[in-house]
Request: fold
Amino acid sequence: MRNLLTTRTAKSARTKRSLTLLGALILLVVAGYAVAANAGPSVATPKITSGPSGVTNVTSATLTFTVGARGDTLECSLDGAPYAACTSPKTYSGLADGAHTFRVRDRNPRLGAGDPATRTWTVDTVPPAAPQITQEPPTITNVDHATFAYTDAEAGVSWECRVDGRDWTACTDPVTWWGLHDGVRTFMVRARDAAGNRGPATSYTWTIDTVAPPKPQLTQRPPNPSASSSATFAFTDREAGVTFVCSLDGAAYASCASPQTYNGLSNGTHRFDVRALDAAGNRSGVTEATWRVAASTTGLPFTISGGYGGLLYPGKTGTLALRISNPNGSAIVVTSLTVTVQPGSSNAGCDGPANLGVAQSNVSAANPLTVPANGSVTLPSGGVSAPSVTMLNLPTNQDACKGAVYTFAYSGSSHS
Reply:
């Protein structure tokens, strides 16, 4: 009987051990497959619904997040600090510049703490430096627009600009401002970083002047005609601070100052031009002077100009108002003067010598005409008469001479 009981007890022990092993590893057989059963419920991860992100210049932060299951506890941590119980929303203040990381997790009384939800952002309260302007217009210009370029020590900044105290507006690098009016203009630019910090502004002031100065006024010039091969011109302008450019006889303009002297001038007619140039580059109109150089004191021929300006008809006599000019540096004495009617006329069939008669001037060696140095005399003068011309009253060809224009030639002699 004992042996039987002993056998049953041993069998019962083996059976118990088998059941214990089955309890440690439970297998489910489904359609011929064996799978492991769910190990049990887990703790959910909270969801952060709002809070700072990216880069900000705000030193406080408020974060909101989903609450845990009933009976659970939410725990928060900032920048690796120990977790502590918290509720939503969670606010931090006095945050230092730099990166910050917030974590929140759910703690279940039975299952423990779950995985945290995280959010990272950066606090930056340091504004960028004042920009450096690398391109700007001249301090005085006659251009009604301006282009500026600039840079900043902090990379990745954006820009805000304004002109003459207008509102700040976003701008690019470079930026061009158009349609600016004459006067003093001021441009300002400042940098703004990704956190929204605005740095100090850099400014540049310049002047726009699009108005040309008035023409210069000549205050000194050579006589005309001049016996000198040198000529001096003095000039001024009503606009202060201008400079001048000059030209002689059509040459290219060159910088000059008052007085301006030219030497070694040849005999003949010369032209002097001067214009004013202001600091903005505006050029005035041209002031011009012409004169004739007769540098030799003797031996130059005098010239005769003038004529009759009225109408001639048969029997009509007109005086030839002649002007005798002396280009020499000393007076001359004219002793003879001859007027000759040239053949033909502007009308076919009306010959000048055949239809006109000339009464010569009474100038002679016995009745001379004195012409001053570099001067002129118009006849009649003193006891010297002017020559005259008469249209002859001929019986034929008078109709052919209506409206005719005649040509006269002049000659004479003189001595010093």
In short: The two ends are 187 Å apart (CA to CA). Confidence is low (pLDDT under 50) at residues 1-37. The chain has four domains: 48-123, 132-208, 217-293, 303-415.
